[in-house]
Write a structure and sequence with these properties.
Number of strands of chain C: 14
Structural class of chain C: alpha+beta
Shape of chain A: globular
Number of strands of chain A: 15
Helix content of chain C: 25-40%
CATH architecture of chain C: 2-Layer Sandwich
Structural class of chain A: alpha+beta
CATH topology of chain C: Ribosomal Protein S5, domain 2
CATH superfamily of the largest domain in chain A: Nucleic acid-binding proteins
InterPro entries (chain B): ExoRNase_PH_dom1 (IPR001247), ExoRNase_PH_dom2_sf (IPR036345), PNPase/RNase_PH_dom_sf (IPR027408), Ribosomal_Su5_D2-typ_SF (IPR020568), RNase_PH (IPR050080)
Radius of gyration of chain C: 21 Å
CATH class of chain C: Alpha Beta
Protein name (chain B): Protein involved in rRNA processing
GO molecular function (chain B): RNA binding
Distance between the termini of chain C: 45 Å
Largest interface: A-B, 37 and 39 residues
Strand content of chain A: 25-35%
Strand order of the largest sheet of chain A: 7-8-9-11-10
Order of helices and strands of chain A: EEEEEEEEEEEEEHHEEHH
Number of domains of chain C: 1
CATH superfamily of chain C: GHMP Kinase, N-terminal domain
Keywords (chain B): Exosome, Nucleus, rRNA processing
Shape of chain C: elongated
Oligomer: heterotrimer
Subcellular location (chain B): Nucleus
Chain lengths: ~230, ~220, ~300
């Protein structure tokens, strides 16, 4: 894996064959030229004989992609549809009341405005509203999706959220587990839901995870200890 | 040469922000987007761009409206608008201290363009290319970049030049605004020299961005 | 905000805990960064930030007040402070509340001596204007804007003038030392948010248990059930008090809040005075400034 800084307008020597382009690129429809459009770190990796190019860059506003796991807040109910907010000031996504395992006309969930759900992005097409569901498509069962009760919700930047979601053994989490017990759900939209035994522990965990965005790996044990001591 | 000072990510509630100071001119810039556009702004295939410039004292007047329009021209050419159909990208600038030379608003606009670029990068908005601007005056047949207020006041012509930057090279001319009396030849010299100026500026700006990105990804290493 | 956050925050506040680890009666750290010009500063309270700019010009006084100068405060909220302020309706409400409180706290408490701004009665006077732009909105705007305006007024200097044969001559700052404004006292706002563990009915009866915090963040402010803003100065004078929201407060509770506020006010007054004094010394002795720049580089 090779990495380097890229800013918009940099010319990359990328052949348009046998590649997969991740976020941060734009293919000029006139010239077929591949242009990097975001400033970040270029990551090149191999996947099934194809070269994958991704520009990893930090952002706060979430743009939905199919199959992303997200944490949404119900912002309204319209007949058989829920409106779900995925990030502030962006258009709400929608979710059918039947998008839950075993849901039927008689047996449907009763979510209220302000409730928090963990869901999967079912479709995110350019020109229609984003749709969510709370079913694991591989099993047809709940699979961890559904309403998240109690606990607290906070946000981190999107790159960090993805890192926490796809790295169960992220140092910050393995170190935090040594200190206390907690339940955690991470959404690609940068939201994190956390629940632990006491209010104080939850507040401390929230602070530690928020702050850890600015910690380097080797600093984690030291800084974690500092924050923990300050809050307890 | 007066080196501009750059800083990013100082505001918390917006997606991206920057401060820039060029001589006595200081500007704070924030970018939010892509967010839901108001119905009157919504465009079916691309994003709308809203630019707001606030002066140091009072509310915006024609001077700021004029700068907003010019800045919008630059942003329209560089933001990858088709990436965000029906969305809105909002750019707010606050001129904390303006140029002491009141002849024209080019020095302020110069700071606004470069500030907007950094804030857009910070907000991770998709851009077709990087861009930077320079401000030069012709004073006694001499071409001066980043002039002081005294130099601005005694100059015959003023030029704001904005190029897009591809692979560290100033590539295409995005915007040029000239005030005063000058010949075609003089303008061509300004453009030629601006390329060099912008490329050397770009090295510093790129360093700022590298620092920003390594700060953003400190948890990764 | 989600129901989960709402309930969690209320529960935490009930236990006397705050998300940023503060105690209920603890302010966020205040920082004032003075700009190169007089009356120009960046005020930071935790994550909240405002940019202050004081300016002055010579105008004709109001006809009904020929012996007084003019003082205006303009505080602005926009999408830079928080994207929700793009909606005019949301913005207006906040702006009106803010400007009324600042009006009461600073203007009507006579913090700025308007008569000293008079140049020639009925003909010429100074008009002083405070522009406050909220660039990062994180709750408790009243307190931070108030600190910004008053610190700006204390720091500001207007060019010196002289009158010859009825005409006003304005002296450039390089020609004659500029003159500070005559600030009579330093009013500082302290805003408390009141929450209740009981239901609405309990609140009316006064049965619910109340808990009070100072300097709320945006999230804490969003679930407030009552607000009280006290404006005091370091002479222990109450300049203004305003309370809104539906929770009853007993007189002795208000008195104890006033005592809490007094501690904060004294602390902030000292900080503001020290900051301005330090800046003044640097301006008088630029060599010291150069040395400081060298130090900060190291």
């Amino acid at each position: 894996m090779t990495e380097s800084l890229i800013v918009p307008g940099d010319r990359l020597d990328i052949k348009s064959e046998n590649i997969i382009l991740g976020p941060g690129f734009y293919v000029d429809p006139k010239t077929d030229e591949i242009l990097p459009t975001n400033a970040g770190i270029l990551e090149v990796s191999q996947k099934q004989n194809k070269t994958v190019y991704v520009i990893d860059s930090k952002s706060k506003t979430y743009i939905p992609k199919t199959n992303d796991f997200v944490i949404g807040i119900i912002t309204g109910t319209f007949g058989e549809l829920y409106k779900v907010g995925l990030s502030e000031f962006t258009q709400a996504a929608q979710m059918s009341v039947y998008a839950f395992p075993n849901a039927s006309k008689k047996n449907r969930p009763h979510l209220k405005v302000g409730d928090v759900i963990y869901a999967r992005v079912l479709s995110a097409e350019r020109d229609i509203e984003v749709e969510l569901e709370c079913i694991d498509p591989t099993t047809g069962k709940e699979g961890g999706f559904g309403q998240l009760e109690d606990g607290y919700l906070f946000t981190v930047n999107l790159a960090y959220a993805r890192y926490l979601l796809f790295n169960e053994n992220a140092e910050i989490l393995t170190e935090l587990v040594k200190k206390c017990k907690f339940e955690l759900a991470v959404g690609c939209n940068g939201r994190i839901w956390i629940k632990s035994e006491t209010v104080k522990t939850t507040i401390t965990c929230v602070k530690i995870i928020e702050e850890s965005q600015n910690w380097s790996k080797q600093d984690i044990p030291k800084k974690l200890k500092e924050v923990w001591a300050a809050f307890n | 040469m007066v080196l501009p000072e750059y800083q990013t990510s100082l505001l918390n509630k917006v997606d991206g922000s920057s401060t820039i100071s060029i001589g006595e001119v200081k500007v704070i810039c924030s970018v939010t987007g892509p967010i839901e556009a108001k119905p009157r702004q919504e465009l079916p295939t691309q994003c709308a761009i809203e630019v707001n410039i606030r002066p140091e004292v009072g509310v915006g007047s024609t001077r700021e409206k004029n700068m907003e329009d010019k800045l919008r021209v630059v942003l329209n050419g560089t933001i990858n608008k088709f990436q965000y159909p029906r969305q809105l990208i909002q750019v707010h600038l606050h001129i904390i201290s303006k140029s002491q030379a009141t002849e024209n608003n080019l020095k302020d606009l110069h700071a606004c363009i470069n500030g907007a670029y950094l804030a857009l990068i910070d907000a991770n908005i998709s851009l077709l290319s990087s861009f930077l601007s320079t401000y030069a005056v012709i004073n006694d047949d001499r071409l001066i970049f980043n002039p002081t207020s005294e130099q601005i006041q005694s100059s015959i012509s003023h030029h704001l030049v904005c190029f897009d930057i591809k692979s560290g090279r100033a590539d295409e001319l995005l915007f040029v605004d000239s005030v005063g009396e000058f010949t075609e030849g003089e303008l061509m010299t300004v453009l030629d020299q601006s390329i060099e100026e912008i490329e050397s500026m770009n090295k510093i700006v790129r360093k700022t961005i590298t620092e920003k990105v390594s700060r953003d990804y400190i948890w990764k290493y | 905000m989600s129901t989960n956050e709402h309930q969690f925050l209320l529960k935490a506040l009930e236990e006397g805990l705050r998300l940023d680890g503060r105690k209920p009666m603890q302010m966020r750290p205040l920082n004032i960064e003075v700009g190169p010009d007089y009356g120009q500063m960046l005020v930071t309270l935790g994550d909240a930030k405002v940019v202050v700019r004081i300016s002055s010009e010579i105008v004709t006084p109001y006809e009904d007040r020929p012996f007084e100068g003019i003082f205006q405060v303009s505080s602005e909220l926009d999408g830079m402070g928080h994207p929700s302020f793009n909606e005019a309706s949301h913005r207006q409400e906040e702006e009106v509340m803010l400007s009324r409180l600042i009006e009461k706290a600073i203007r009507r408490s006579n913090a700025l001596d308007l008569e000293s701004l008079c140049i020639i009665a009925g003909q010429k006077c100074w008009s002083v204007r405070a522009d406050v732009h909220i660039i990062d909105y994180d709750g408790n705007m009243t307190d931070i804007v108030c600190i910004g305006v008053i610190a700006g007024l204390l720091h500001f200097k207007k060019p010196d003038i002289s009158i010859r044969n009825g005409t006003v001559i304005l002296h450039d700052m390089s020609e004659r030392e500029p003159v500070p404004l005559s600030v009579l006292h330093i009013p500082i706002c302290v805003t408390f948010q009141i929450y209740s563990s009981g239901s609405m009915e309990d609140n009316v009866k006064g049965d619910g248990r109340e808990f009070v915090i100072v300097d709320a963040t945006l999230k804490e402010e969003a679930l407030t059930q009552g607000t009280i803003t006290l404006t005091l100065n370091s002479n222990k004078e109450l300049c203004q008090m305003s309370k809104s929201g539906g929770i009853n407060l007993e007189v002795d509770e208000i008195l104890s809040l006033t005592n809490e506020a007094q501690i904060i006010v004294d602390d902030f007054t000292k900080y503001i005075k020290d900051t301005i004094k330090k800046d003044e010394e640097l301006r008088v002795n630029p060599l010291q400034k150069e040395l400081q720049v060298v130090n900060s580089r190291e």
